[in-house]
C-alpha cells in the first residue's frame, strides 16, 4: 500500500466519529462553557443540544424512536449517557426547562458561522437581504393542541347556507355542522420566518396559533436582524405600523403592494422625483405621525404587472433592476418551507402536547438549519457553489450516517463530508410560479393587483407642511 493510499485510508473514520466532528464544528466545547449547567445535573448543555440535534435529524417516524436513536448515538459520540435521564420523558422535561436558553445559544452560534464561513453569500447588492413569510404546520388533533393552536371562531361566522342546485345534478349535499366544526378546530401552528436570502438558511422565527399576525411576528423580530439588513416580503406584509417600525429600526425593505394600498404623490414633504410616493393613511395623520417617504418600482412577472416599494430612495444605492432581483429572490423562502414540510417531513408534527409541539418545531428548524449549514461549508471548502446545495441530498447524507453509525465507509467518497460535497442540485430548471403544477388541493389566489396612486389633496399638502414645520422647530429647540 502506497503512502498516499495509507493517508487516504487514515482519513476514513467510523461514522459516529464523523457525527461527533459535525457537532463540534457547529457548537464547540469552548462555546458550551458560556452556559452554566445546574450543579449535580445529569443533563449538561452539550448533552441536551447533541441529543436534540440527533432527535431532529433522525429519519425515523415516532418521536420516541427518534430519541432512542439519538441516545444510542450520544453513547458513541460523547462516550457517556445522562445517567437516569435515559427516558424520553426525562429528556423532554429537561429540554423544555432550558429550551429558550439553548435555542438562543444555538441560533447565535449558527449566525456567526453563516457570516464567517459563507461570507461570499452574506450580501446582495450591498445589503444583508432577509425574506419574510409565514406558513402553517399541522398538529395532531388533541385537547392540548386544540386549546393552544386552533383558530378562534368569530361570532356570527360559519352560518351554513342552503344547498345549492347545479343544473342537471339536483341538490348538492350540504356539509354537516360536525364536519364544519371539525375542520375549523383543526390545530395548526402559524410559523413566521425571517430567511437569509444569500445562504438560503433561516435567521429567526416566531410561532403561534393559526390566526397569528405575520406582521406582528416580523415586527417583534426586527431587533434580531443584522446591520445593513433589507427585508423583502410579499403583499401580506404591507402596513404603516410595520413599515414605520422598520424605518425607525434603520432597516430597509422591498415589499410588494397590491390594490388594497393607497399611495400619495406630490405631497411636498420631501425632495421628490418621478418615482417618489408616500404612505400616509388618515389614521396616522390624525395621530400626528409622519408620512412615510417611499420609492415605487413597477415590474412585470411575465403575466401581470407588479408594484414594489422601498424606503431606499437613491437609485445609486439600489437600482430598479436590483429591487426587482431582490424581490424575485424572495421566492426561495417558499422553497424552504417546502423542504421543511415535505423533504424534512414536518408537514405535520407529532407532539400531542402543545408545549412539546413548540419544542419539536423549534428544534426541527435548528436541525434543518444545522445540516444545511454543514453541507454548505463543505461545498465551499471544495470550491463549489454553496447556493447550489441540494437540501434533500444533505438530509439524506446525515440520516444515512446516523443509521450506519457503527460503519466505517469503504471509500472516502462514502464519508459524511464527501456526501455533503456531492449534495448539489440537478440541472432541472425549477420554476418560481406557484401555478406551475396542478396540485389537487391548490387554492385559487386572487390577483394582488397594483396600488392606487393619487395626487395629494390641498388639505393633505397643508397638513404635511405643517407637520414638517413642527418637526423643524422641535429639532431647533431640542
H-E string: HHHHHHHEHEEHEEHEHEEEHEEHHHHHEH
Q: What is the CA-CA span between the terminal residues?
A: 81 Å
Major β-sheet, in short? Answer: 8 strands, mixed
Instruction: Work out the helicity level.
Output: 40-55%
Number of strands: 12
Compute the gyration radius: what is it? 26 Å
The percentage of residues in β strands lies in: 5-15%
Strand arrangement in the largest pleated sheet: 5-4-1-6-7-11-10-9
Helix count equals 18
* Shape, principal axes of CA atoms: elongated
Q: Report the structural category.
A: alpha/beta
Low-pLDDT runs:
1-10, 157-162, 434-443
Mean pLDDT: 87
Which helices and strands appear, and what pairs or packs with what?
Blueprint: H1 3-11, H2 15-26, H3 29-32, H4 45-57, H5 63-77, H6 88-97, H7 99-117, E1 128-138, H8 143-149, E2 165-166, E3 170-171, H9 177-184, E4 188-196, E5 201-208, H10 214-221, E6 229-233, H11 240-248, E7 252-257, E8 262-265, E9 276-279, H12 282-286, E10 292-300, E11 305-310, H13 320-329, H14 332-343, H15 354-381, H16 391-403, H17 416-421, E12 452-455, H18 458-477
Parallel strand pairs: 1-6, 6-7, 8-12
Antiparallel strand pairs: 1-4, 2-3, 4-5, 7-11, 9-10, 10-11
Helix pairs in contact: 4-5, 4-15, 7-15, 15-16
Amino acid at each position: 500500500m502506497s503512502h498516499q493510499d495509507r493517508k487516504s485510508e487514515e482519513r476514513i473514520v467510523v461514522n459516529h466519529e464523523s457525527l461527533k466532528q459535525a457537532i463540534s464544528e457547529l457548537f464547540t466545547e469552548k462555546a458550551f462553557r458560556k452556559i452554566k449547567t445546574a450543579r449535580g445535573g445529569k443533563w449538561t448543555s452539550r448533552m441536551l443540544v447533541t441529543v436534540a440535534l440527533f432527535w431532529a435529524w433522525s429519519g425515523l417516524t415516532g418521536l420516541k424512536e427518534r430519541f432512542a436513536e439519538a441516545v444510542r448515538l450520544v453513547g458513541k459520540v460523547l462516550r457517556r449517557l445522562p445517567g437516569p435521564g435515559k427516558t424520553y420523558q426525562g429528556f423532554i422535561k429537561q429540554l423544555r426547562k432550558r429550551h429558550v436558553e439553548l435555542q438562543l445559544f444555538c441560533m447565535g452560534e449558527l449566525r456567526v458561522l453563516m457570516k464567517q464561513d459563507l461570507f461570499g453569500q452574506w450580501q446582495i447588492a450591498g445589503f444583508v437581504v432577509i425574506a419574510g413569510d409565514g406558513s402553517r404546520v399541522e398538529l395532531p388533533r388533541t385537547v392540548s393542541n386544540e386549546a393552544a393552536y386552533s383558530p378562534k371562531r368569530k361570532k356570527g361566522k360559519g352560518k351554513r347556507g342552503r344547498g345549492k342546485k347545479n343544473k342537471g345534478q339536483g341538490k348538492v349535499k350540504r356539509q354537516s355542522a360536525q364536519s364544519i366544526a371539525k375542520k375549523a378546530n383543526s390545530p395548526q401552528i402559524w410559523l413566521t420566518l425571517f430567511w437569509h436570502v444569500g445562504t438560503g438558511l433561516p435567521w429567526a422565527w416566531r410561532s403561534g396559533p393559526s390566526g397569528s399576525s405575520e406582521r406582528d411576528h416580523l415586527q417583534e423580530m426586527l431587533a434580531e436582524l443584522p446591520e445593513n439588513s433589507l427585508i423583502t416580503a410579499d403583499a401580506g406584509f404591507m402596513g404603516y405600523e410595520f413599515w414605520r417600525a422598520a424605518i425607525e429600526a434603520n432597516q430597509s425593505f422591498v415589499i410588494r403592494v397590491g390594490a388594497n394600498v393607497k399611495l400619495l404623490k406630490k405631497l411636498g414633504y420631501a425632495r421628490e422625483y418621478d418615482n417618489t410616493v408616500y404612505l400616509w393613511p388618515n389614521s396616522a395623520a390624525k395621530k400626528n405621525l409622519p408620512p412615510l417617504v417611499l420609492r415605487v418600482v413597477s415590474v412585470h412577472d411575465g403575466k401581470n404587472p407588479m408594484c414594489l416599494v422601498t424606503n431606499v430612495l437613491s437609485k445609486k444605492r439600489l437600482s430598479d433592476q436590483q429591487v426587482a432581483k431582490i424581490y424575485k429572490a424572495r421566492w426561495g423562502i417558499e422553497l424552504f418551507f417546502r423542504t421543511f414540510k415535505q423533504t424534512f417531513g414536518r408537514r405535520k408534527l407529532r407532539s400531542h402536547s402543545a408545549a412539546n409541539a413548540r419544542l419539536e418545531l423549534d428544534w426541527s428548524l435548528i436541525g434543518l438549519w444545522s445540516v444545511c449549514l454543514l453541507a454548505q461549508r463543505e461545498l465551499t471548502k471544495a470550491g463549489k457553489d454553496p447556493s447550489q446545495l441540494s437540501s434533500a441530498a444533505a438530509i439524506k447524507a446525515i440520516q444515512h450516517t446516523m443509521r450506519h453509525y457503527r460503519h466505517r465507509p469503504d471509500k472516502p467518497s462514502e464519508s459524511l463530508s464527501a456526501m455533503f460535497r456531492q449534495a448539489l442540485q440537478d440541472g432541472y430548471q425549477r420554476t418560481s410560479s406557484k401555478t406551475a403544477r396542478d396540485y389537487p388541493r391548490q387554492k385559487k389566489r386572487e390577483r394582488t393587483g397594483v396600488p392606487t396612486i393619487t395626487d395629494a389633496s390641498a388639505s393633505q399638502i397643508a397638513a404635511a407642511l405643517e407637520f414638517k414645520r413642527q418637526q423643524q422647530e422641535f429639532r431647533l429647540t431640542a
